[in-house]
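Example record for the data management plan.
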Amino acid sequence: MNAEVFIDTNVFLYALSDRPEELTKAERARQLLMNENWGWSVQVAGEFYHVATSSKRQFRLTHSSAMDYITTWLSFPTASLHPSTVRQALKLRERFQVSYWDPR
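Corresponding structural encoding:
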């Protein structure tokens, strides 16, 4: 992975936020994504998808919207698995309605 900055899940979530109380964090997150040589991991992709599409979120992305973001971000250095593996996993998730197990 050739990147100067590793982007964590929260950076992506803040970058998409339009909540007034998160304005400063949202601006900084967008700045990082637009101006830095960044990379991320498959784990972050999975975490982003899980949190961003969660029914517990006030601002919830659809499967399609989350897929669009992830697909775009896969053009950046991605640690662990080949990007096509991530795309395939997300397609399978939608097809078979697989979700994370949440014991709560």
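Summary line stored alongside the record: The chain has a mean pLDDT of 84.
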